[in-house]
Amino acid sequence: MSGSVGDSEYEALCKEYQSLRSEIELAIRNQVRILGYGGTVLGVFAGIGVVSPSFLIVAALPFIAFFFAVLWSIEQTRMMRAGDYISTIENRLNDEYFGEPVMLWENWLRYRGARQPERDIYQIHYWSQYLIIAVFILTEVFGILTVLLWPPGDVELMLRLGLTTLYLVFAGVMIYILRKVVKHKNLEKSFGSFQK
Fold this sequence. Notes:
The chain is mostly helical and 196 residues long. Helices cover 86% and strands 0% of the residues. The protein starts with a helix and ends with a helix.
């Protein structure tokens, strides 16, 4: 491999690394905003629903919770996916260009998880994700109970059943997100398959 090709590959890897680090920073900022806006909107609607009970206000809570949960999960996944890929760039730079461990951040996080299971950053991260999604799922459960227990005569039975079904679908989607999207699969296996 000529020096110019090697230099070009090195520069491309470094640019890709920097770009993905920027994407992670943006995803973190977006997550904080989504949680802030989501918590505020849910709090305001819940407060209005308590002070002045209205079926429409209470029925809107699960829609709001679902919307913010999906947005937050997208940003979480985006952040984790970029971090996973960055670890492969670190490995390549360390192996092909430095000959020793120089680029370490994402690999260090994975190393800590493997060597210090009692303080595994990834497990703590996943549990915090589960907690946030659980709050949204509880909002769905609250919506189902409220719709079913709302005083008879105020709301048609078909509307109650329709909303209950929709809320159950929302909860199912969030549980799917918890099980399939939030928790990433083995990175080495995924990247190995990609390179073949």
